[in-house]
Amino acid sequence: MTSKLSLVWLRRDLRLYDHAALATALGRDGVLQPVFIFDTDILASFSNPSDRRLSFIAATLSSIDSSLKTKGGRLLVLHGSAKELIPRLANKLGANFVCAAEDYEPVSRARDEAVAKQLAGICEVSFVKDQVIFAPCEVTKAKDDPYKVYTPYSRLWRSTLVPTSTAAYSMKDDGRYSDLCEKAKTEGFKVLDAGDPVALLAACGYHYKEDSLWPVTDARTRLSRFIKNAADDYGRGRDMVAEDGTSRLSPYLRFGLISVRECAHEALKAGADKWLSELIWREFYAMILYYFPESAQQEWNPKYRGVLDWSHNPEHLDAWKRGMTGYPMVDAAMRQLLAEGWMHNRARMVVASFLTKHLRIDWRLGEAHFAQLLMDYDMASNVGGWQWAASTGTDAQPYFRVFNPTLQSEKFDPNGDYIRKYVPELREVRSDVIHAPSKQKFKLNYPAPIVDHSSAREQAIAMFKTAG
Ligand SMILES: Cc1cc2nc3c(=O)[nH]c(=O)nc-3n(C[C@H](O)[C@H](O)[C@H](O)COP(=O)(O)OP(=O)(O)OC[C@H]3O[C@@H](n4cnc5c(N)ncnc54)[C@H](O)[C@@H]3O)c2cc1C
User: Which residues pair with 191 in a beta bridge?
Assistant: First the structure.
């Protein structure tokens, strides 16, 4: 072994191909040790010991570890506070270099700054762009003057794009991955067995559950299947909630099992322009959160801060969470979230609008519920999506445009297939009545609407008018 060692700290980039941090370390002399920290600072917000995201991460780490073994290396997985462990590990192993991908969330930025500070006297450190094509500060009106509207942002994003923006990193490793997992090298650290996801989670007090909905080996297959079967018709199919019209790649993008460069490259090659626009929305919201970190907690639009008269109705909130509002599309969507840890984008817009407008419940409560359950939970996109629906965000839905959940259902689930899939009480109901079953004479084991659409709409508009 040469004397030079690079530690590559994996976070939202859980893969071994087209990997900016690994490629950066491979570009230097010496060997590399990839490391992942089951970070207790992050885990503190996970209230469910069987959270499916933890199983997804554990299974991914196991698959990375298997691949590294074929290259003579191992993935080092530690449990504890990353802020404290990374500098201590670099010191203990005598690393010359620590590399990780940039993370733009407020808490992650603070953590990375703290780590960089502690590493200053120990070794070189570098954070490199990986999870986006363009970092927040790369697409702005002028230096640190961010766009607040999507269309001009996306125009500049597109005109800034050159072929190298989406080019994959070369990952030629020449057998330089190392295995520093043995006890003697890592004494004083809680090392988890990356090869065994069940034991790994158990050692931290969590339960592993195999998840057939989100196989960790599926990322690139999903991308090619989407490009082949659905990308051409995405402009229409993306809104049809019962169809396989979107890629369902969001959890894979969230944790970096797939490279966004590869996604954008394939989109450009296939002429999937509308789909590329969605990848740009993802970067737009990352940029918004970067420049307006307070928007994670507060209304992005200062005009609405502290002045909206939200309703405090725990029964309504509970009915919404359980999918028992009496509006079939809302209920199907909320139950899809509970069953799959994922929800179709059109359905997310409908349920978020329903919570904030029909029930006039604070968007933060909806955002927090999604944060607990979404496989793809990403603070920037979630806060962005919620504030869009609540009309408090940047480039948001105007407050007077209140989705009619029945019309949304008729339009985007015309046969009621989505409803039937998730709301078994309505499985036998005919397509022409399934969108508003309470209007029928026959009795169903399904709740009547908890609010009336027309009056709820009027009250929502009044709430915004009074505030603004
Ligand atoms: C209230 C609300 C909350 C949301 N919360 C999240 C969240 O926590 N995490 C998340 O990744 N997305 C979130 N979205 C955006 C969007 O719903 C999901 O990204 C999308 O449904 C994922 O499905 P897909 O992978 O099939 O998307 P596709 O349609 O195949 O799109 C490809 C990718 O583009 C990105 N993308 C698509 N639409 C959006 C969008 N509107 N905003 C930002 N990125 C987008 C995603 O990374 C997605 O995987 C939210 C939207 C709303 C309205």
Answer: 78
